[in-house]
Automatic annotation (TrEMBL):
<dbReference type="InterPro" id="IPR044638">
    <property type="entry name" value="ALDH7A1-like"/>
</dbReference>
<feature type="domain" description="Aldehyde dehydrogenase">
    <location>
        <begin position="26"/>
        <end position="492"/>
    </location>
</feature>
<keyword id="KW-0520">NAD</keyword>
<protein>
    <recommendedName>
        <fullName>aldehyde dehydrogenase (NAD(+))</fullName>
        <ecNumber>1.2.1.3</ecNumber>
    </recommendedName>
</protein>
<comment type="subunit">
    <text>Homotetramer.</text>
</comment>
<feature type="active site">
    <location>
        <position position="264"/>
    </location>
</feature>
<comment type="similarity">
    <text>Belongs to the aldehyde dehydrogenase family.</text>
</comment>
<dbReference type="InterPro" id="IPR016162">
    <property type="entry name" value="Ald_DH_N"/>
</dbReference>
<dbReference type="InterPro" id="IPR015590">
    <property type="entry name" value="Aldehyde_DH_dom"/>
</dbReference>
<dbReference type="InterPro" id="IPR016163">
    <property type="entry name" value="Ald_DH_C"/>
</dbReference>
<dbReference type="Pfam" id="PF00171">
    <property type="entry name" value="Aldedh"/>
</dbReference>
<dbReference type="InterPro" id="IPR029510">
    <property type="entry name" value="Ald_DH_CS_GLU"/>
</dbReference>
<dbReference type="InterPro" id="IPR016161">
    <property type="entry name" value="Ald_DH/histidinol_DH"/>
</dbReference>
<keyword id="KW-0560">Oxidoreductase</keyword>
Length: 511
């Protein structure tokens, strides 16, 4: 039995599975079957039966019932359940990492890292279960106390993307759960089996604790499921990860019914390499940032803004480094980069390359579709680099592939302006040993992104910080810091413990 077959068996994922669940209960549907094909070799891994509207409504009803129970469980008790989920993920780390790597195509190291990220957010949520703090305030009225507290919203809908098929769901689910919410997850139709495995893991934990169905729900399918969730007034919060186009649709739909949305959308991330940079550090940061996950991260480095005095040296060193990359089966630990998610992604990569060349881009490391033994799936490409002008139209857009643009600059003010002069605003970085340059980059007049780093790349966020961006990236925040507040409703409370009824602002209303 091969490694993937063994992992699927250990994870409890069948070759043909139902894809609609409210926990241990898997619903029969009349939906079509959705096959999951690995971009690694083009083989079918398995298939799931997608949800129909009847099964979806059954899931929502189950979630509504569970929400009234789960919100009354003390937060530290909820944290204890999440601690157990973290331990279950530790036990399944290798199997789930293998499946993520094979189904999505990212390197095994990144697949295992994604599961570790899930474990980390569990640990964070456990601590948070005793820190859902409100504030106390001084009242202007005598014998009055004021404070605020936070209550669960109810159901949180989670729409996740293929590039992080499990980690981004966990950012939302673990925080939502510890805050007293229940979750309905619609995973990417490109990576449904990884989602099924996660649902099995958490459902087992909830079941062992004697908890009701509906706290963790899974609904597989295509964009129609996302539309049901976005339009559903029973779901007060929708967290959506994906393209800006998708986010606009979700945001507008949810806002029209006065619901809440957390949107984590496209990125067009840049690294500024100063003339005062540690170049060894800068090259390593740029290499992983541009090539990791085959350029399919929202935090992928897509633009390299390099001081004119170092431009040719950086270009040559990157070209040399690209020549040493090993591309192939991501389950082979010797390979640095696996395939793109599917042939549609390959076509978008090739089309972007054609356009940048037509625009006059100078080739530094050329693009290519890899063919032959080991590349039979048709999804393997070479990462490429082009020098473009500051006003390049192609550099304004996100191509979800290992396509890196290099742009020259002369002073730090110009570098920051170029960095900010795109519609997206997710992640950014500067490589410099100059304190003044670092300070300028991090100032209010510096990077306009939600993430701004010094002497590390744009990719690889830790769960302790809030994750998200500005402008067309959506403006939402997930994961750490106080991002938990988006999953709750704030309530201000005033208590009068006296015998009089003074009004605020000194208003008199005596009869």
């Amino acid at each position: 039995m091969g490694i993937i077959e063994t992992s699927l068996r250990n994870l409890g994922v069948q070759a043909a599975s139902q894809g609609t669940s409210s926990g241990k209960n898997w619903y029969d549907t009349q939906g079509e079957w959705l096959a999951s094909f690995s971009p690694v070799d083009g083989n079918e891994i398995g298939k799931v039966q997608v949800s129909d509207k009847h099964a979806y409504d059954s899931v929502v009803k189950s979630a509504l019932k569970a929400a009234t129970f789960w919100r009354d469980v003390p937060a530290p008790k909820r944290g204890e359940v999440i601690r157990q989920i973290g331990n279950a993920l530790r036990e399944k780390k290798n199997d789930l990492g293998n499946l993520v790597s094979y189904e999505m195509g990212k390197s095994l190291q990144e697949g295992l890292g994604e599961v570790q990220e899930m474990i980390d957010i569990c640990d964070f949520a456990v601590g948070l279960s005793r820190q859902l703090y409100g504030f106390t305030m001084s009242s202007e009225r005598p014998e009055h106390q004021m404070y605020e507290q936070w209550h669960p919203l109810g159901i949180v809908g989670i729409l996740s993307a293929f590039n992080f098929p499990v980690a981004v769901w966990s950012w939302n689910a673990m925080i939502a759960w510890v805050c007293g919410n229940v979750c309905i997850w619609k995973p990417s139709e490109r990576t449904p089996l990884s989602a099924l495995a996660c649902q099995q893991i958490v459902a087992d934990v909830f079941d062992r604790n004697g908890l009701p169905e509906g706290i963790s729900c899974l609904v597989t399918g295509d964009y129609r499921i996302g539309e049901w969730i976005s339009n559903d007034e029973r779901i007060p919060l929708v967290s959506a990860t994906g393209s800006t186009k998708m986010g606009r649709s979700v945001g507008q739909t949810v806002a029209a019914r006065l619901g809440k949305a957390i949107l984590e959308l496209g990125g067009n991330n840049a690294v500024i390499i100063s003339e005062k940079a540690d170049l060894d550090l800068a090259i390593r940061a740029a290499l992983f940032g541009a090539v990791g996950t085959a350029g399919q991260r929202c935090t992928t480095t897509r633009r390299l803004i390099v001081h004119d005095s170092l431009f040719e040296e950086v270009a040559q060193r990157l070209k040399n480094a690209y020549g040493k990359l090993s591309i192939g089966n991501p389950l082979d630990p010797h390979n640095h980069m696996g395939p793109l998610i599917d042939k549609e992604a390959v076509e978008k990569y090739l089309e972007a390359v054609r356009k940048v060349k037509a625009e006059g881009g100078r080739t530094i490391a050329d693009a290519a579709l890899l063919e032959g033994e080991g590349f039979e799936s048709g999804c393997y490409v070479k990462p490429c680099i082009f020098e473009v002008k500051e006003d390049s139209k192609m550099a304004q857009h996100e191509t979800f592939a290992p396509l890196l643009y290099m742009i020259r600059y002369r002073n730090i003010e110009d570098a920051i302006r170029i960095q900010n002069n795109v519609p997206q605003g997710l992640s950014s970085a500067i490589m410099t040993t100059d304190l003044r340059e670092a300070g300028a980059f991090l100032s209010a007049a510096g990077s306009d992104c939600g993430i701004a780093n010094v002497n590390i790349g744009t990719s690889g966020a830790e769960i302790g910080g809030a994750f998200g961006g500005e402008k067309e990236t959506g403006g939402g925040r997930e994961s750490g810091s106080d991002a938990w507040k988006a999953y709750m409703r704030r309530q201000t409370n005033t208590i009068n413990y006296g015998r009089e009824l003074p009004l605020a602002q000194g208003i008199k209303f005596d009869i």
